[in-house]
Amino acid sequence: MVREYNVAILGATGAVGRRMIDQLAKSTIPVKSVKLLASSRSAGMVLKFRDQDLVVEETTPESFDGVDLVLSSAGGAVSKKFLPEAVKRGAVCVDNTSAFRMEPDVPLVVPEVNPDALKDHHGIIANPNCSTIQMVMALEPIRRKFGLKQIIVSTYQAASGAGQAAIDELKKEAQDYLDGKDMQADAQILPTKGDKKHYPLAFNLLPQIDVLEDSGYSHEEWKMIHETKKIMLNDMNAKDIKVTATCVRVPVPIAHGESVYFTVEDESATTQDIMDAVANFPGVGLEDDIKHQIYPQPINAAGKRETFVGRIRPDYENPGAFNMWIVADNLLKGAAWNTVENAEYLVKMNLI
């Protein structure tokens, strides 16, 4: 008899939470019941799961009684408060915040890349940062076949990475610009709520995502560097692969782009070898036909689970070095779908 699971979605009313509901409905997980959890402000809202109308409940520790699986995207502070309570009550949690990512005993997992890390969980599994997820999806097949020495990434990250309010702010600023109004008055969120100044994103680029640290890097850049090492090498400070990042917010609603320069250990690898490795990796779509101007674009990736890769080409000045362009829906593969997919793997591997 197939076991069915009682599932709770924490942060159900947010942009990612709503997509988790949808992705769970489309998943292979045998669902017995679904509980939607949020803050007191959102309690009482009615959302659909498949053909059911579900009332959103205010989150309390007791909300997790009888729950087998928690999918969480309600902010780091909320995750730190409630997920240990869920684990105490016997649930396994997949968390989409940064709250637990760098904890040594918490697996940081992209299922196609490092599924075996799930075996070491102690009740909580962390979803990586959205921009990290799509980069390791594209680079892991290359690492496995040819080795990786260095990664230099520049991101082009969509407004939705800062939530629905950032999308709304971008749209308002764009309309004000077209109407000849001052956009600065609308800038309340970006580049980050946690900093002193805010700037408009419409018709602009912001080379800051998350807070700027004393090192000169933003925290988003720090995350990409150390999460990549933890996922690929199981050590956030590993030296075997050198990683550096520049993260930029761009006026796109959904789907992040990334320009990645990387160096492989096997210098005999050709561009076609790299393309073949990428094309055959699960969850990755190769869109690379320069004769017909085919390459990944955010407008086409939005709403899709896959990570799309194109513009693969060698650095003719440096043997073993290549460039590529990566695009993925940051709210799906970068968040909701990766979370649900981790849960699918937990079920398949009998780890719940």
UniProtKB/TrEMBL annotation:
Its EC number is 1.2.1.11. Residues 6-121 form the Semialdehyde dehydrogenase NAD-binding domain. NADP(+) binds at residues 13-16, 41-42, 160-161, 330. It catalyses: L-aspartate 4-semialdehyde + phosphate + NADP(+) = 4-phospho-L-aspartate + NADPH + H(+). Pfam families: Semialdhyde_dh, Semialdhyde_dhC. Phosphate binds at residue 101. One of its GO terms (biological process) is diaminopimelate biosynthetic process. It is an enzyme of class 1 (oxidoreductase). The active site is at 130 (acyl-thioester intermediate), 256 (proton acceptor). This is Aspartate-semialdehyde dehydrogenase. The gene is asd.
